[in-house]
Amino acid sequence: MACSEKNKHIKAELVKRANIHLLQTMTNADMMMKFQDWEAQRCKKNAMFKSMMNYLHRVEAILFFVAASRTADLKLHLEAGEALSKLFFAMDRIKYKRLWPRYISDMYALRTSHPRTWRELESGNNLLLGVISHLYPLARQWL
Q: With CB atoms 3.0 to 4.6 Å apart as the test, which of 5, 76, 87, 125 could cross-link to 68 if both were Cys?
């Protein structure tokens, strides 16, 4: 039993090192720029590919927003919110496209108008997530 626990720790450390190495390699090789160039070239040649990539980018924006909500990451929340704002305009969601930009600007305004609140949100002290997690321990996995 002790050996298996040790092996789990070693495997976890190896996976962590591999992920760090992969991230460094991708950053050094400028993989994201190469992927974006490849995507742009493929989109020019194939309308179906362009349509699918458009769909994937929309889903990605939603997933980023969900991840920001789960982790109480204010920066990601606002970035994903800006991406969602574009979707609300594209999908003609009248109330959202009218109110969402106001919400995003009000959140950014907190930095100067209420710096203490901004710092608390930035540090991950999100009251709503804390209350929900405390009252319903399983709820955090669904947020």
A: 76
